[in-house]
Specification:
Elements: H1 2-30, E1 60-61, E2 72-75, E3 87-103, E4 112-119, E5 136-138, E6 151-167, E7 176-183, E8 187-189
Antiparallel strand pairs: 1-3, 2-3, 2-8, 3-4, 3-6, 5-6, 6-7
Length: about 190
């Protein structure tokens, strides 16, 4: 009888540890955002820390970017907690139109306002770039949970060079790899 009670205790303790680890992992994965500071904390969940190095097939590499692949720059954007002031390594540079969008996630949840950035090549069958403010589009990007397939409204458009970057958050934690996207004016030369 005593060993059966001990076995139940060990199983219960194991399950509690597994659930605690899962909860901690969800906090790490969902605790950041690509939203602007105008958004509430509830809109900041669902950000993938790291992404795939894959880019849309029709996305054109920048021929002469300010920050070439392999160079470093300081991030001036605050899309995610710990991003501003971090040193970034440039993974890729691409010439495109970047959009600020507002959308309601496909999997439910609160609307995400002024999300930076979705690029023209991450829209489903878009008209010619740049699209005007107020245009409704379908997102093909998967930067955040519930983004892919969501209907979005274009808030603004910027023709620019966008960068995929790797960086370690200034708040600590794991290195973020293949973050999409920061624009050229969101980076500055390292000292």
């Amino acid at each position: 009888m005593k060993s059966k009670t001990q076995l139940i205790g060990v199983i219960t303790l194991s399950m509690a540890l597994i659930l605690a680890a899962c909860a901690n992992n969800n906090e790490q994965v969902n605790g950041n955002s690509t939203n602007t500071e105008a958004n509430s904390e509830s809109n900041m969940e669902g950000m993938n820390h790291s992404g795939s190095a894959e880019v849309p097939e029709d996305l054109q590499k920048s021929e002469n970017p300010t920050y070439p692949e392999g160079s470093t720059a300081i991030i001036e954007a605050n899309h995610m907690k710990g991003m501003e002031g971090a040193e970034a390594t440039i993974v890729g540079a691409y010439d495109t139109t970047a959009y600020v969008v507002t959308y309601t996630p496909e999997d439910g949840g609160e609307p995400v306002e002024n999300h930076k950035w979705v690029i023209h090549e991450e829209l489903e069958d878009p008209d010619e770039a740049p699209l005007p403010s107020g245009t409704e589009v379908t997102l093909m990007a998967s930067h955040m949970e519930g983004m892919e397939g969501a209907i979005a409204t274009i808030e603004s458009a910027t023709e620019t060079t966008v960068y995929m970057i790797d960086y370690t958050p200034t708040t600590g934690g794991e290195k973020v790899t293949n973050h999409k996207w920061v624009t050229e004016d969101e980076l500055t030369v390292t000292e």
